[in-house]
Amino acid sequence: MTIQAAPRLPGQATCSSWRDSVIAALIALIGSGVWLWFALATRISLEDAYITFRYARNIAQGNGFVYNVGERVLGTTSPLQTLLLGGLGITFGPDRIPVGASIVMPVFGIAAGALIFLAVRRLGASPVAAGIGLVLFYLHPLVMRTSLGGMETPLVLFLMALSLYFLADRRAAPAAVSVGLLALCRIDGLIWGGLVIIAALLSDYRKPLKQALSFAGVVSPWLAFSWLYFGSPLPNSMLAKGVIRPGREGLLTDPLHFSRLSRFYLSGLAPAADRWLILISVALLLLGVIAVARARRRELLLLPAFLAVYTAAMYLGRAPMFHWYLAPMLLCSLPLIGVGLSHMIGWALSREGSPALRTGATVCLVVLAVVALPAVVREAKTIPRRATRASLVQQNEFGLRQAVGLWLREHTPREASVAMEAIGYQGYCSERRVIDMAGLVTPSVIEYNASSASNGIVFKRITTELRPDYIVLRSFEVDDNHHFKGGKLFETVADRDLFLHHYREVRRFTAPHPELAPLLARLTLYQRIPGAPPNSAPAGLPGEAPAGAESTTPRDSAAPASRLRGPAG
Fold first, then answer.
1. How far apart (Å, rounded) are the C-alpha atoms in residues 92 and 86?
2. Contacts 24+ apart (CB under 8 A), 59-66
3. 533-551 pLDDT, tens per residue?
4. In a 10 Å sphere around its CB, with 0-12 CB exposed, 13-18 middle and 19+ buried, how is residue 532 labelled?
């Protein structure tokens, strides 16, 4: 059973396309039901999505493409999604942007699955292979979470699948337009886009000039606008991550980095980390790669090629291990697993070929059933528990970071500035000028990170040079002198005294379910003390907080950071 695209008459092609569309629609309907249940059960809304929501809200309100009004900094990685949500805000009202995203983004995710099904079918994959891949896509928990969380990920998946669909249909110009939009949706989309363009140029329908003009027609207006408006088309968030990542010494031989990336990727293939599911998934994936390498339509090689190039880019770039980075790889790996499994089924059922091949395939399927089915049952039993946990995590987001943002909006002056590291919920809900301690929307912090020897020095420069009116910190950072990104928050006792001379604790916030992630479950809000001389040394003994620095609310008990361990929220 090989992957091939046999010549078809026009009428046959129409019939086959209609049948494929019906199959895709039926599976998509089931997937939509599962996604709707998960969304209602968890109310999931990811932190980083609110960064884009704030940009979109400012566009809808007429403040421009900005996070802080009057500050032209490209802190979102998805200009296309920002403009789309800004349009929704103009149409339905700025405050409806989060709700609009929760409706529109999952539609793109469902459409992405249907398009990838149709694309691999047009490229010669069997209905069984494409169907297995589509079912795995819709039921994968990481695909659900990233598609329902309000971020740009489902739009990325949709444009990837759309470009492959056009490529399978031998329509090079629409494929180039799709990858142009993908580049505007997220800059790492250029990896997939480059591979699509190369595949089109190597195929028998290459039209390089038409492709180039189509791609340029989409990207050029944004490049011109971003150069004029922001001073650069590069997202500030990408620059911020570039200066805080670990050093590059021993990059290619760093076993820890390789191990982390490997576990991260394999957790996408088998979310429950069941060793049997991982082994089976890897085996079927490799079988699928071998099958597409022998296919007549070489465009299918895009799937394994992207997996290799994208993984290499993550490794060499030391990308942070965020789960939404897995979703583009899953769009490629899950159909390949479907191809591998369908080939094994085909070999076992085929009346052609050697008896040894049929016997071997049959034995593999029996072993697969014996080993995989119990693992799948165990995985299915974890779904309600995983949904419950996701619901509790979301309650923590609403009860902690959203609560901090709402408190700031209700109790601080409109013109106040607030320094914080998590600028999603807190920044969106507070509606205050944000000084971003990660640097995504505050370029000066990027310079501090690039030129300072430690995170503690960066924090000191933020408090003494940018002088925010309020600061939101994780409670353990001051209590245990431990910076969230590593190292000390205060390099010396004098630095701590200087901070406490200028800032007093206002309030502590605790998540509703702190047991889920004790290290991240408490936040402390500090206010700059009115009248404190800028950068002056504190009075009193070293390490002693000056008068007026005590908290206005009771402090929660907190164990040392070194002893606080719990699953990430």
1. 10
2. 59/83, 59/86, 59/89, 59/90, 60/86, 60/88, 60/89, 60/90, 60/93, 60/94, 60/97, 61/89, 61/94, 65/229
3. 665 655 543 433 333 333 3
4. middle
Q: Give the pLDDT confidence score for residue 443 in this predicted structure.
A: 92
Q: What is the pLDDT of residue 563?
A: 33
Residues 356 and 404 in one domain: no
- In the chain, the largest separation of any two C-alpha atoms, in whole Å, equals 90
What is the token pair recorded at 111?
Answer: 């459409």
Q: Can you tell me the mean pLDDT for 113-133? A: 93
Average pLDDT over residues 62-87: 95
- 493: number of Cβ within 10 Å: 13
Residues 204, 267, single domain; the answer is yes
**CA angle at residue 337 from 192 to 137, to 5 degrees?**
70
Distance in angstroms between the alpha carbons of the first and the last residue of the chain: 45
**Cα(533)–Cα(502) distance, rounded to whole angstroms?**
8
Check the CA dihedral 324-326-329-334 and report its sign: negative
Instruction: Tell me the whole-structure pTM to 2 decimals.
Output: 0.87
pLDDT attached to residue 543:
39
How high is the pLDDT of residue 248?
42
87 part of a folded domain:
yes
Axis-axis angle for helices 172-185, 208-229 (nearest 10): 20
Q: What residues does 522 pair with on adjacent strands?
A: 510
Residues 449 and 519 reside in one and the same domain: yes
Q: How confident is the model at residue 567 (pLDDT cuts 50, 70, 90)?
A: very low
For residue 569, being part of any structural domain is answered with no
Structure tokens at 303: 């799937």
Contact 426, 420 (CB under 8 A): yes
Q: How far apart are CA 346 and CA 2, in angstroms?
A: 9
Domain region containing 474: 400-563
For the cut 80, the answer to whether the pLDDT of residue 390 exceeds it is yes
Residues 388 and 421 in one domain: no
Among 392, 420, 455, the domain-final residue is 392
Stated as kind and residue range, the H or E segment containing 420 is strand 417-420
- Please report whether residue 142 resides in a domain: yes
Q: Averaged over 222-232, what is the pLDDT? A: 94
Average pLDDT over residues 463-492: 94
DSSP three-state, residue 524: strand
